[in-house]
Amino acid sequence: MKWTRNLRFSLRAINRSRMRALLSISGVAIGIAAVVILIGVGAGAEREFQKNLERLGENLLAVNAARTETDALRGSSQMYQTLTLNDWEWINALASVERAAPVADGGRTLRVGRLAQSFTILGTTPEFAEVKKFTVIAGRFIDDEDIAQRRRVAVIGANVVEDLYKGEWPLGESVRIGNVPFTIVGILKKKGLNPDGTTDDGQIVVPVSTALRRVLNKDHLSRIFVQAVSKLAIEVATTDITAMLRDEHGYDRPNYRDDFEIQNQDMLLATQDEMSGSFGQLTLGLAALALGLGGVGLLAVSLLSVRERFGEIGLRIAVGAMQRDILIQFLTEAVLLAVMGGIAGILFGGGCVIIGSQLTGWSMLLTWEAVAYPFGISLGIAVIFGAFPALRAARLDPIVALRSK
What we know:
56% of the residues lie in helices and 17% in strands. The chain is α+β, with helices and mostly antiparallel strands. It is built from 13 helices and ten strands.
C-alpha cells in the first residue's frame, strides 16, 4: 500500500507543476532520442557493411601481385609480373580451396558508335562469377569454350549499360575494346559499392585467354581470387597458397622476397571493427552529453520541487512519516519523470529512425538495443540525479520545514 500511496502522491505533485514536469521530461526525452538515433545509425551502417561484405563472396581470399620496393632515387615502383595461369591451376588444385578465378585487368577505351569511354577490362574464367557472387540478369557468362577458343565475347556491368547504352540491353551487339571488336553475350546485375568504396559495376568481363593475348598484351595476372572450402579453412588455404607460391617462385634463391600478397575478409572486418570502435566512442560521448543535460534538468526540477514543498514535507514528518517514506516519494517522482521522458524519447527517436531511413535512403535500423539501453539509461538518470534531492528532502528538519510553510 505504501508504494501505491507514494505513487499517487508523486502523480499529484507532478500534475500540480505540469510545465516544470514537461520541461524535465523534454530534457530526458531529447537525450534518449539522441541515443536511439545514434544506435540506429550505427546498427544500420554495420548491417550495410555486412551485406556489402557478403556481396564480395564467401570465404574469399585475394592473391595479389605485390609491389616492388620503391626506388629511392627514381621515386617509383611497379607491380611484380610473376603471377601466372599456372599459379592459378596449382591453387585451384589445393584441397583447402573450393575454387579459384584468375584475373588479368587493365583500363581500356570502349567504343560504341561515336561514344567512347574508359572502363576496366577484366579477363577471367567461369569460376569468377561464383567466387565473386556475380549474377547474370541477361544472356550468359563466359564459359570454358570461350576460354579454349579465345573467343571475343564480353559480359558487361550495369554501369557500362547505363553509360554507353542508356539503360538498354545490348545483347548480341558489337563493342570495340581498343581496336578489337567483341560481341556482348551477357549483362551483370548491379552490385553497388564495395566496403572499401569501390564498385565492380563498371567492368567488362572477357575470357582470360583473350584478354592476355588480344587486349592487354601480357602474360601475367593481376590477382587470383580464391574461395576456401569453409570459413575455418581460410587460414589453412592462406598457408597452403603461401607455401606453394614461394616454392614455385624460387623461395630458395638469394635475396628472395614474396612477390605476392594475400588478403582476406578478416582485414576488412578488422577495419570495420576499428571504424565501429571510433563511432562507438563518438556515440558514447554525444550520448553522455545529451543525457547529462537531461539529468541536470531533472536535478534542477527535483531540487526546486523539494524547496517549494518544505511545508508539505514537515507536515508529513510531523504526523509520523519516516525518512525513508520521504526519500521513496521524491525518488518515485524522479523515476516517473525519467521514465516518461525515456518512453517519449524512445518513441520519438524510433520514429526518426524509421522515417529517416525511408526519406533519406540512409541505412538505419531500429534494434532491441536501441530500445532497451535508453530505457535502462533513463532509470539510471532517475537514480543518479534524483537521489540527492530525495536525500535532502528526507533529512530535512521538520521544525525548519514547518516554519517555511
